[in-house]
């Protein structure tokens, strides 16, 4: 079947089944003569040639069909594929507007599957209004029970879904607060240490002044301070082993040259990337009697610079987190806009950083040449959240998360892959079903894959598919680069 197929059936012929013929159908066998006469008068028979499309999934449910003869197949669309759910030639099976008897709650009634006649088929047909009328008038108690069951299930699922989403929002907020607390606490600690180091510098400056240091030496010391800070800014990062070896070298040199507290100063110089050559240069530029105070002064200057860098990094991290949260929530932005998908992916990864953890390696393969697409970014961010959260949970804290973007014809594709155990074939067929989950109560985002599917397919005219085998599972979301046609 293709999306361009049209429903082309021969005209319905009214009044061609008698009450006795209707009674041979199991659906009507217990009805009274009067009821059978009413159905015969209001129904009609319809012929569908072999291969013809009888009804299409998603279109308004306007007719109730009962199979009289022939073979039919029912299919449902899953991703880009049509999955056959029923193939039957059983006389009397019914399909179509099977829920027309439910009260009008504002939810449009649509066909839940596509039906095609595999060979010449004949149907008995009632309109949805007539079928709903006879059900409500003839079986009021049964209808009340069915309505209560249907509405009750819908209400309970809505309440449960809302609670799950609130719980997921709480978990996401708690994670964000944790992420914000880390740099905030680091900035607070660095500020306290900075206050102590500045006080030490003032004290050391007083000692230098009391010592009546010649102006030339003070100038040399100030110049050395700027030189040391500049050298530290350009120094390459050291591994833990290299830093430990450097500390030992610096500590021994300072001890040999009479610098007090050498083993406390050595880590500061090592962290700044300074070496023995730097200390030798300092010793050559200041008098021997001033070396101890000069090294301490330079140590204070170096440490204050490092602390200010830590504060700058921490506050920048806070600003980045706030910006990511604002982008993720799409606060103060239009619901529908042209977007770069990478912005939403990056903000989602930031928001889920606490869930991803250190055991999962994140690989980003972004095609920066992709065009902007028309979308509802807040809704797409929910899809990214659900897919990434599912991938991380599948890997149980260890593995590789790959987020990739690329172009495929007139679509932008976002693929999210993990190295988890994979999805069994029997579950792969059901993952897009409403309310289906493999997670225990309280886990997950509360946004099922069926909702993600509807956001992508119904809300954006795109597609979402999955491929899975042990060690490699990938969800691919395809989004059109142009506004979908209004036709």
Features:
five-stranded mixed sheet; 487 residues; Heat Shock Protein 90; 50% helix; 3 domains; alpha+beta; 16 strands; Jelly Rolls; 14 helices
Layout of secondary structure:
Layout: E1 13-14, H1 19-23, H2 33-42, E2 44-48, E3 53-55, E4 63-69, E5 72-78, E6 81-88, E7 94-96, E8 114-117, E9 121-127, H3 128-138, H4 140-210, H5 215-234, H6 240-256, H7 262-271, H8 276-285, H9 291-329, E10 337-339, H10 341-351, H11 353-356, E11 360-365, E12 373-375, H12 377-395, E13 399-408, E14 411-418, H13 425-428, H14 449-460, E15 463-469, E16 472-480
Parallel strand pairs: 11-13
Antiparallel strand pairs: 1-2, 2-9, 3-8, 4-7, 4-9, 5-6, 5-8, 10-12, 13-14, 14-16, 15-16
Helix pairs in contact: 4-9, 5-9, 6-7, 9-10, 10-12, 12-14
Can you put this structure into words, describing what you see?
This protein has helices spanning 19-23, 33-42, 128-138, 140-210, 215-234, 240-256, 262-271, 276-285, 291-329, 341-351, 353-356, 377-395, 425-428, 449-460; strands at 13-14, 44-48, 53-55, 63-69, 72-78, 81-88, 94-96, 114-117, 121-127, 337-339, 360-365, 373-375, 399-408, 411-418, 463-469, 472-480. It folds into three domains: 13-138, Jelly Rolls, CATH 2.60.120.10; 174-321, no CATH class; 337-480, Heat Shock Protein 90, CATH 3.30.565.10. It starts with 12 loop residues before the first strand and ends in a 7-residue tail after the last strand. The chain is built from 14 helices and 16 strands. Helices cover 50% and strands 19% of the residues. The protein is of the alpha+beta class. α10 (341-351) crosses α12. The strands form four sheets. Strands 1-2-9-4-7 form a five-stranded antiparallel beta sheet.
């Amino acid at each position: 079947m293709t999306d361009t197929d049209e429903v082309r059936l021969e005209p319905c012929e009214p009044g061609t089944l008698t009450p006795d013929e209707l009674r041979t159908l199991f659906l009507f066998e217990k009805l009274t003569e009067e009821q059978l006469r009413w159905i015969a008068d209001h129904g009609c028979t319809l012929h569908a040639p072999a291969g013809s499309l009888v009804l299409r999934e998603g279109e308004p449910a306007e007719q109730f069909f009962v199979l009289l003869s022939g073979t039919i197949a029912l299919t449902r669309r899953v991703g880009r594929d049509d999955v056959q759910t029923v193939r039957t030639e059983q006389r009397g099976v019914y399909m179509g507007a099977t829920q027309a008897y439910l009260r009008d709650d504002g939810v449009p009634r649509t066909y839940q599957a596509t039906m095609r006649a595999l060979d010449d088929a004949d149907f008995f047909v009632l309109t949805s209004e007539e079928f709903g009328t006879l059900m409500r008038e003839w079986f009021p108690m049964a209808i009340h029970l069915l309505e209560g069951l249907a509405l009750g299930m819908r209400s309970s699922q809505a309440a449960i879904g809302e609670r799950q989403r609130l719980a997921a929002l709480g978990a996401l907020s708690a994670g964000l607060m944790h992420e914000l607390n880390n740099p905030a606490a680091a900035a607070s600690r660095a500020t306290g240490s900075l206050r102590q180091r500045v006080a030490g510098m003032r004290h050391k400056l007083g000692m230098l002044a009391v010592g009546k240091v010649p102006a030339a030496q003070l100038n040399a010391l100030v110049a050395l301070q700027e030189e040391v800070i500049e050298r530290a800014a350009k120094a390459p990062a050291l591994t833990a082993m290299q830093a430990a070896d450097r500390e030992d070298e610096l500590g021994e040199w300072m001890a040999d040259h009479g610098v007090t507290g050498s083993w406390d100063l050595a880590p500061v110089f090592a962290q700044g990337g300074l070496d023995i050559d730097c200390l030798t240069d300092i010793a050559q530029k200041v008098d021997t009697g001033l070396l101890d105070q000069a090294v301490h002064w330079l140590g204070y200057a170096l440490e204050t610079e490092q602390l200010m860098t830590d504060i700058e990094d921490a506050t920048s991290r806070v600003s980045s987190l706030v910006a990511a949260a604002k982008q993720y929530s799409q606060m103060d932005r239009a619901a529908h806009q042209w977007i770069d998908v990478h912005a939403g992916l990056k903000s989602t990864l930031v928001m889920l950083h606490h869930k991803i953890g250190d055991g999962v390696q994140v690989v980003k393969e972004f095609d920066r040449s992709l065009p902007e697409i028309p979308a509802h970014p807040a809704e797409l961010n929910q899809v990214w959240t659900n897919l990434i959260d599912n991938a991380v949970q599948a890997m149980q804290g260890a593995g590789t998360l790959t987020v990739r973007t690329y172009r495929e014809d007139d679509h932008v594709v976002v693929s999210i892959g993990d190295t988890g155990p994979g999805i069994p074939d029997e579950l792969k067929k059901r993952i897009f079903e409403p309310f289906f989950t493999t997670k225990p109560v309280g886990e997950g985002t509360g946004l099922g894959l069926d909702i993600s599917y509807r956001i992508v397919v119904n809300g954006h005219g795109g597609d979402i598919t999955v491929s899975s085998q042990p060690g490699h599972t990938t969800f691919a979301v395809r989004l059109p680069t142009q506004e979908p046609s209004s036709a």
